[in-house]
């Protein structure tokens, strides 16, 4: 609750989380105003990518502030375990991630007319899982930053390679075999694959289920790594 109250008082962060992905998707829709097919092709993937990136940024910086302010150190002196503490932070950010995913999905699928052939709730489910993944990755990667500037530097280091190889710029089967192999171990790849299947198929098949399970698995793994790398003191 404390984290949620802090986020509620930080209007700039709320605006960034809630408005940035929809604004970017709206800009994309206007950019491809004369080519709806192009928007329908790249829109689903970006509906998953934008929330992931935003939550990664917000979570990593917010967690770093908790450590540099001494709040995290004080919490770790209590009987609360590291895993419980990370779950608490994760749940707090998950509320924000859910609101972000709902807003972005409603705008994109509703007002902007993005074509989704699957059932109506599925884009929201995929978007929220993507937001949760970004939250978990942000919690983990914040352990490797000593300052907010370093936390910002983690964004291109952790996300841009995934964006380049996830299949949105070039289909994975057209990549060099080595790059295709690397893309298979990147979580964002499965976010994009899941969104692509939702836009082209009406069936909830085993491939879509596989993609969503991998996203959930990567989220859980990132939270586990965050608990392991969580430091008591800020250097």
From TrEMBL:
UniProt keyword annotations, A-Z: Antibiotic resistance, Cell membrane, Membrane, Transmembrane, Transmembrane helix, Transport
Gene Ontology biological process terms, A to Z: response to antibiotic
Protein name, UniProt field: Transport permease protein
GO cellular component, one term: ATP-binding cassette (ABC) transporter complex
Domain ABC transmembrane type-2 as annotated: residue spans: 8-233
Record field: transmembrane: 12-32, 44-64, 85-112, 124-144, 151-170, 212-230
Keyword Magnesium tagged: no
Principal subcellular localization: membrane
PANTHER family membership: MEMBRANE COMPONENT OF ABC TRANSPORTER YHHJ-RELATED (PTHR30294), TRANSPORT PERMEASE PROTEIN (PTHR30294:SF38)
Cell compartments where the protein resides: Cell membrane
Membrane topology label: Multi-pass membrane protein
Lineage, uppermost ranks: Bacteria, Bacillati, Actinomycetota, Actinomycetes, Frankiales
Record-level Gene Ontology MF annotations: ABC-type transporter activity
One family name in Pfam for this protein: ABC2_membrane
Family (UniProt): Belongs to the ABC-2 integral membrane protein family.
